[in-house]
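Exam prep: given the inputs below (a chain plus pyridoxal-5'-phosphate), describe the expected output before reading on.
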Amino acid sequence: MCFEWVRCPIFAVQFSKMDILAQRVHVINEPQTIAMSKMARALIETGIDVVNLSLGEPDFDTPAHIKQAAKDAIDQNFTFYTPVAGYPELRQAISNKFLRDNNLHYAPDQIMVSTGAKHAIMNSIMAIIDPGEEVIIPTPYWVSYSEMVKLMGGKPVFIAGSLANNYKITPKQLEDCITAKSKAFLFSSPCNPTGSVYSYSELEALVKVFDKYPELFIISDEIYEYINFVGKHVSIGSFESMKDRVITINGLSKGFSMTGWRLGYMGAPKQIAVACEKIQGQYTSGANSITQKAAIAAINGSLEPTYAMVEAFKRRRKLFLEGLQNIPGLLCNNPEGAFYIFPNIKSFLGKSFEGAQINTSTELCLYLLNKGHVSTVSGDAFGEPDCIRISYATSEEKIKIAAGRIEKALADLK
Ligand SMILES: Cc1ncc(COP(=O)(O)O)c(C=O)c1O
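Solution:
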């Protein structure tokens, strides 16, 4: 228990003011993506024109047929509590989708619908991680993975990706960090923040390692599945030897531009899906009824709006990379999916602006925000302190402005 001693000025007695918060609150950090966005918004409110490249959400409208399904759901009074694991029709649609798009065989009773992919990942960690157990996470990783594991008392174990390998891990790196305490491997492909996409042969090489450790579970976060510029997405659960121990996470937020609707799901071994239903039943209950009806329309409907969005992301990626690759000292990776660039900014650390030295990627992001009026996120948040994350989920016009501002701000560092 943590005590803070304070002096009461009137009676001059000491008393203890107990820390009212549980220890688990202190072991996690606020997501930096959200913190940076808050700061950008605060600056915008003072009248400054900031290009906000810190948030991870598509800037497109949700497709019309999905919105119509939601309106119909309200008119048809789908406004009551939903089954904890999701409407049977939606679980069937997800089961069909897994087979159609991913060659994954999850029966409807192996599907759990949740309030966003984040919720689904948290459910899976709650269901399988006991205190002290290790979860292997390749870096850079999505901000919440490590914090979710810590919240459950687990131990995140990181494998460092490198720019030279486009931030993908090798089979040797994986094998080197597996211990008797390893319980799960947690990763995203396409990856947030690097945009890296594991190909079939790269996954196959990792599967050969997993084959030697049959007790290890894999949590495969495929939320960016459709935003892939290099070919067909491959699900690790589609490898024959893996199918009974992969929890596949997906959702509507990115592929259908539905971040605010809050719907994610998992396909999992039955025992885990049932455990997640039990946990969620005591925690948040079933996901929003109207969103679930919209999700059925999204999953069963045309993917044309998604493909059009992906084409736009492709153009923006090209435009932004052209702008950033000309900046001396900025080392850009090759994002193969998602909508982020994750450049290495190490050569700028130690430089100064008007006498103030910039020593960390967080300080560089604050400098870019306050002086360049471009909001980005520090690589610290993703386990890679030499980088920053730049989202290109914004218009081509803003991308051109942002690239120019970043170039100028970095050139001003001496
Ligand atoms: C890799 C990754 N997984 C999961 C999520 C969470 O998705 P959702 O909005 O469906 O909770 C995000 C959101 O940024 C993400 O980038």
